[in-house]
Design brief:
Length: 521
């Protein structure tokens, strides 16, 4: 993987590169999920598919051990680097490294104990106990490896070269796909293959991240003399509220599979996991796209250029909003067609489709506002945001647990779980995040909310157009009909959002920077 640095890249051109490479990663991951998910469901069953999601969720729970430190480490390293304080940047980076090594050991030991007693905690089909346990062991080891080597990822963030990170992810995804095809194509299907493949990809990521670090930030080095427990304490105390934010995220949407398993069954856990596979993939795309704006946020904030920071924040919402309505409308309108064609015969397509629509209703407003979360880390003002988010998370879990005890039907329990989660998420993002983010930055209360409301309007309009297309033009379910209708929805969505959501400055940015159309002289 070659990288040249001799030719400077403008900030806007770099933003386009970052977003383009992020979208490429999403498209590749979508293609892999398209082929792999129905294969696992067919070979191992719906419950087995649910354990893949559950394993990732549980690894997310363990991140609470390190989030206080690591959520702020990049901020301290980056701020000192941009300020020219390389010695201080090295102190924070080295201190983070040794603290993470210690926590990686704790992680492996703690999760090892959990795995031993795993079948007593969650419902696992008897014939899959060994396979599920081995999957968890390998994924836990992989999580520890990632934690111990995470510091090498700072380089691309500091230099705003997230396109390099995405290129690494693209290549790693291709390798993962090839290994997955070989494993499931030539050997009896087992879940633990995914854990082994994850470890192989981690070593590839370590190698490439280290190369990027040497090329972009060679002055940042790990030296034992740079370790300072005071730095660890400072970053941890600054990030303690981010721990609560992450806990609230888990309470809001990270416990759904575990609650489905414990209160309903392993089968319905798999159904919930399938219904959320595409929505969470879309949410992951927008979270990655949002990350491409963070280096600019940090640079303008470090320079105290609040006008440029406000401009970039609003543009991030509008640019993300340009694409929000399209996937939402496609799933609302054609989701049942997609699941019918995608999943093996015998699945409850109607249930999966309806659960997907409920989930998408909850995340519509989260997609264009993903970049706003960084406001609190950037300004080191996460206390009040964390407390509010914890309240939302507690309300979510409390309502779900109450519903699980008062509803007798497993089917109604599934609907209740997903509806409660979606409702709490919608309220949190539409009523709290934009207004509090504006308050932290000293902006008028509705500054960040107005573009979000326009995006909701465009989504509603596009969904009605798509449903009209479906009812009058699609007479038989086929991939050709689905792709054709989706293309029409996509083009219509771009036209609607281009005129409704974007400002003239945004349109000029797209014409001159992305489409390379020269303005007439």
């Amino acid at each position: 993987m070659q990288m040249t640095t001799s030719r400077p890249i403008s900030r806007l051109s770099q933003a386009v590169r970052n977003m383009g490479s992020t979208i490429a990663v999403f498209v590749l991951n979508l293609g892999i999920s398209y082929f792999l998910s129905p294969f696992i469901v067919k070979k191992l069953g719906v419950a087995a598919y649910g354990f893949l999601g559950l394993s990732n969720n549980i690894i997310g729970y363990t991140g609470l051990l390190t989030i206080a430190l690591n959520s702020m480490a990049g901020r301290y390293v980056s701020l000192n680097y941009h300020a020219g304080n390389i010695e201080e940047s090295n102190r924070y980076r080295t201190s983070t490294y040794f603290a993470n090594l210690f926590m990686a050991v704790v992680l492996v030991v703690g999760l090892g104990v959990f795995t031993i007693f795993m079948e007593k905690i969650v419902n696992i089909p008897p014939q899959q106990v060994s396979d599920v346990k081995l999957l968890f062991v390998l994924l836990f080891i992989n999580a520890a490896i990632g934690l111990a080597t995470s510091l090498y990822g700072y380089a691309t963030f500091i230099k705003n070269r997230l396109d390099l990170t995405n290129t690494r992810i693209l290549v790693g995804t291709v390798i993962r796909t090839a290994l997955t095809v070989i494993a499931f194509g030539f050997f009896p299907a087992e879940l633990w293959y995914m854990g082994g493949i994850a470890i192989i990809i981690s070593f590839y990521n370590i190698y490439t991240s280290y190369r990027f670090h040497r090329l972009l930030t060679p002055e940042l080095k790990i030296r034992r003399r740079h370790y300072d427990f005071k730095c660890v304490k400072e970053m941890t105390m600054a990030g303690i509220w981010n721990l609560l934010t992450s806990l609230s995220s888990i309470l809001s949407h990270g416990l759904d599979l575990l609650l489905s398993n414990v209160f309903i069954s392993a089968y319905f856990m798999g159904v919930v996991s399938l219904s959320k596979s595409i929505p969470w993939l879309i949410l992951g795309l927008f979270a990655s796209l949002a990350n491409t704006f963070h280096p600019e946020y940090m640079e303008f904030y470090a320079q105290k250029n609040m006008d440029k920071l406000k401009e970039t924040l609003l543009r991030s919402i509008r640019i993300l909003g340009l694409f929000t309505a399209i996937p939402c409308s496609i799933l609302f309108s054609y989701g049942d067609i997609f699941y019918t064609l995608w999943l093996p015969a015998g699945q409850d397509i109607g249930l999966i489709y309806r659960l997907t629509c409920i989930t998408m209703t909850g995340i519509i407003v989260t997609l264009p506002t993903q970049a706003l979360w960084y406001i609190f880390t950037m300004t080191n003002k996460v206390k009040q945001s964390s407390l509010n988010l914890i309240k939302f998370g507690i309300v979510n879990v409390t309502l779900i647990v109450i519903a699980m005890h008062f509803i007798n039907s497993d089917l109604y329990k599934v609907y209740a779980l997903v509806m409660i989660q979606a409702s709490v998420m919608f309220v949190r993002f539409i009523c709290w995040l934009p207004s509090y983010g504006a308050k932290v930055l000293g902006l008028p209360r509705f500054t960040l909310l107005r573009p979000t409301l326009l995006i909701l309007l465009s989504t509603a309009i596009l969904t009605m157009v798509s449903l009209t297309i479906k009812n009058f033009l699609i007479h038989q379910y086929s991939w050709g009909a689905l792709i054709g209708a989706s293309v029409v929805t996509t083009l219509t969505g771009i036209v609607i959002n281009y005129g409704l959501s974007l400002t003239e400055a945004d349109r000029l940015f797209i014409k001159t920077r992305i489409l390379k159309i020269q303005r007439p002289k």
